[in-house]
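Lab notebook, entry 260. We have the chain sequence and a SMILES string for nicotinamide-adenine-dinucleotide, and the next step in the workflow is to get a structural model of the bound complex before anyone spends time on docking refinements. Request logged below.

Task: model protein plus nicotinamide-adenine-dinucleotide, output structure tokens.
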Amino acid sequence: MRCDLGGKVSLVTGAARGIGQAIADRLAANGSRVVYTDVDGDGAERAAGLTPGARALRLDVADAEQVDAVVRRVVEDCGRLDVLVNNAGVNTLAHRVTIDEFPREEWDRILAVDLTGVYLVSRAVGRVMRAQGSGRIINIASIAGLVPLRLQCAYIAAKAGVVNLTRAMALELGPHGILVNGIAPGSTLSEGTKRLFYAEGGLFHASVQRMLDHVPLGRPATTDEIAVAALFLADPENSYMNGHVLTVDGGWTAGYTREF
Ligand SMILES: NC(=O)c1ccc[n+]([C@@H]2O[C@H](COP(=O)([O-])OP(=O)(O)OC[C@H]3O[C@@H](n4cnc5c(N)ncnc54)[C@H](O)[C@@H]3O)[C@@H](O)[C@H]2O)c1
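Result returned:
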């Protein structure tokens, strides 16, 4: 898929690797000037280094001061900001336990990045886009925010928050020419899921086949298959979608895969 993002400036959070990097790469390949941001500043540099004209900035989305400073700097340097992709996200690894055992610190850590981070970056960028009278905000949620999974209560709650925040932002910012939509990916082959799920010996490898049995396509998404959906939401020709969360999950949440 191709679209014309010439003259546009995009900022992607969590762009050092995985889905964020694939989205940033796609936006850049379609003409946007892209700022790759990540709490892993070296990783962001590495990822941006592969894309001519791109730049990289260290950004922890949970740090309000840093968020405001980075957004200010991008606008000073690039003059505008047209596309924001709120992609940075974390989940629990060590605490796959029921809510009665789920540690408070882990809850706070995940909510701070996955939900408060979306609020903080959208708040800062929303001011810029409102002054411009245009913009696109794309929030990366998860199917876990639509249909809960067990043993990851903080991630589930944060991603459900992102889904509804997307709709609320669409209501508030739409009148100012800013379209806000989301993507709910299913299982996607990023470095993390490759290591944890898909590699032999990965922490959750034993449950992979059981999970894929629920996916009609029988495989995870590639990061680029999620990036294509993001490009569609950023495409200037796609100008009437607002407040929608696109499910990109190979049919996982379309219904039951078995006969009854
Ligand atoms: N991979 C999947 O199966 C899957 C499925 C559904 C949703 N998602 C969502 O997609 C997004 C990207 O997932 P991924 O699999 O590519 O993850 P990943 O772990 O491969 O990459 C996430 C990136 O976010 C960065 N990051 C972490 N905390 C940050 C912070 N505080 N500030 C800025 N950057 C931070 C990391 O350094 C990393 O580069 C996440 O929001 C995730 O919840 C992923």
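Notes for the group: The first strand starts at residue 9 and ends at 12. Worth checking against the assay data. The CA atoms of residues 68 and 123 lie 9 Å apart.
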